[in-house]
């Protein structure tokens, strides 16, 4: 295990060195790229993600409803169990796709508000995507109520989500908690530190410190760690 950690450290150092060299090599190339091109390209990619996630969300939520109807009507035990598992699995897939759709919609709205973007069709597309994202979110909430028999709002509060988690059975609750802990660990120890390196590379390439992005990253990183004190205070009374 010690050797494994040693090689991870060496690999991270080598990767950082090559990223630094790459940023210096690409500095001249990025100086020739216009911000307008970057924004239009980003909008196009995000729009594609939004449309795909919209289709997937509707598809999986509908499949979840169909599987739940089968679970309610079929009496044969094996088919009943299979439909039950499928309903919950499709619901989770649809929920993830709905969340990605919401993210894509917000990104599109942020991009079209840039003074560089002067295309009214992109603005209209963003509004249409916003309408569909809220419609899908409402459909998702109603599907959750149908399958899990728990009523959530589109803009659920942390307290509501915690109460929703407590409605799970013990096995699923344990799986959710393990996944949440691993996600938090990866964010704190891997993803966010990697973003610091990425900001360093971008600052080197663009010859300008990405101050706003750095401040946002620091706030998120600090929040994740300081928020752990609430758990400590609540559990170790």
TrEMBL record:
Q: Does the keyword Membrane apply?
A: yes
Q: Does the keyword Acetylation apply?
A: no
Where are the bilayer-spanning segments?
A: 7-26, 38-61, 90-114, 120-141, 187-205, 211-229
Keywords carried by this UniProt record: Membrane, Monooxygenase, Oxidoreductase, Transmembrane, Transmembrane helix
Top-level division of the source organism's lineage: Bacteria
Q: Which InterPro entries match?
A: DUF3169
Which GO molecular-function terms appear in the entry?
Answer: monooxygenase activity
What is the protein's name according to its record? Beta-carotene 15,15'-monooxygenase
**Protein's organism:** Streptococcus oralis subsp. tigurinus
């Amino acid at each position: 295990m010690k050797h494994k950690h040693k090689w991870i450290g060496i690999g991270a150092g080598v990767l950082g060195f090559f990223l630094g060299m790459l940023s210096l090599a690409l500095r001249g190339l990025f100086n020739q790229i216009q911000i307008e091109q970057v924004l239009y390209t980003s909008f196009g990619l995000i729009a594609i993600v939004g449309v795909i996630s919209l289709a997937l969300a509707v598809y999986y939520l509908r499949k979840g409803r169909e599987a739940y109807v089968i679970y309610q009507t079929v009496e044969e035990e094996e088919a009943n169990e299979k439909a039950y598992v499928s309903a919950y699995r499709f619901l989770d897939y649809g929920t993830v796709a709905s969340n990605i759709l919401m993210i894509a919609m917000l990104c599109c709205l942020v991009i079209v508000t840039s003074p560089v973007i002067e295309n009214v069709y992109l603005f209209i597309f963003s509004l249409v995507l916003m309408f569909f994202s809220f419609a899908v979110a409402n459909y998702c909430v109603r599907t959750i109520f149908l399958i899990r028999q728990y009523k959530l709002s589109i803009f659920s509060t942390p307290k509501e989500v915690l109460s929703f988690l407590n409605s799970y059975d013990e096995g699923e609750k344990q799986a959710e908690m393990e996944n949440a802990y691993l996600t938090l660990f990866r964010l704190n120890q891997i993803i966010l530190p990697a973003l610091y390196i990425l900001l360093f590379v971008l600052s080197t390439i663009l010859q300008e410190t990405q101050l706003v992005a750095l401040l946002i990253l620091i706030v998120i990183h600090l929040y994740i760690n300081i928020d752990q004190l609430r758990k400590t205070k609540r559990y170790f009374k």
